[in-house]
Amino acid sequence: MLKKTAVVAGWCLTLVSGDASGQQTMMIPIGGEKTVPVPQGVVAPSDSPEEIAKDAARDLKDNRFYNKPGATRAQYDADWQQCRLIARGSRTPSGSIPYYYDPAVISPLAAGIGGGIGGAIGAAIAQGQQRRANRQQCLMIRGWRLVEVSAKDADRVNALSDADRDTYFNELVGAAHVDGSITEMKTFAITVDPALRLDEPLKARGMVYAGKDVDSAQPMTLGPNEGLVVLGYRRVVPAAQGRSGGVALLRYDLEHRDVIYRPKDWKKNGDKTTYSLTANSHDKKAEYEVQTIRVTAGDYVVNSTTVGAVQPTITNCFGAPTFHVGAGEIVYLGDFHPYIGLPLSNGEKLSILAHSMHVDDARATLAAQQPQLATALKPATWRNGATYACSGTVMTRWDLNGPEMLPSLPSAS
Length: 413
Fold this sequence. Notes:
Layout: E1 12-15, E2 24-27, H1 49-56, E3 64-67, H2 73-88, H3 123-126, H4 129-141, E4 145-148, H5 151-158, H6 162-172, E5 181-183, E6 207-209, E7 226-234, E8 245-253, E9 258-259, E10 276-280, E11 288-296, E12 298-307, E13 314-315, E14 320-325, E15 330-343, E16 349-356, H7 359-367, H8 371-376, E17 377-379, E18 383-386, E19 394-395, E20 404-405
Parallel strand pairs: 6-11, 7-15, 13-19, 15-17, 18-20
Antiparallel strand pairs: 1-2, 3-4, 4-5, 7-11, 8-9, 8-10, 8-12, 12-14, 14-18, 15-16
Helix pairs in contact: 1-2, 2-4
């Protein structure tokens, strides 16, 4: 048996747009050793079981198919249908209808239509190869393995009658043993490699950045429903020096498991709620920069991260780290390491925005200019596995190493 296991571990995925000859590659921040399932609800599609089975059979071909040991054909059909709906934007990974499907409530611009993402998730995703790539990503995140067979075996399957093909795949989707080249996702957290040196001590005093044209030494006063998030960009390792990065946050609804978009009438009502923000690094020459950012109290998810001067096209909608900040709280999210071309111990090279927790370093840096913030600073309580509507070109999942999973919703939800 020829068996090739491709574990997505912070390496390249192909972003397809239009002609496949114009492909570009994006670094996806996932990888590691252990897999924990993301809570996923059940979608009740309007299509009949027969229609769903017919559609799902499109990905059971003579030369490749999906397999999950112990699963049934009915489970494959259900997962395929749910992933199809998620990839085209009409369901969230938890099974609910996305908020942005109600234009009476959500501003189309806030839902991303202005950037090509909206009710249909944009032309690049709603049709063509990228939507199929996201459907495949969804199935693999749910534990399905993509199996590619030899030309000889493909010819044998192609010669079967329709009834025999159905019987063949009914058995194969849940078989414990399959022949072929297997691609699977085993984990969604960054592999802890010695080359990352996430605990490397600082050699210089850090700087504080409080925003454009803001004096970082002036005492900061929070509003009645405001909190402060603090994060660091850490560049101790040579592969991180001179590199920029970005962290994109979205406001999150824990009850309904979806992000919260800006309402259509926000300006009329004077709504100043924080719905989204991107904390880009400020000084890529600084060994350590600590940023302080005002936000409306509530829950947030890390929707995407970037390293280098690139626009974010990735969304962690299949499972994102989430945290809460209360009114008056000063919450430290961690340090982010912008690596580009970092040589790993196995000889591979990694480009990624890695994460670590060094609250004492952040506190010491703040103390020099904002002692009142340093005293109140506390580390965020992270939880993995927050799912929500997929509004991004490449749909994936990112777990932090260590935090527990977000509990599943009750079945009634």
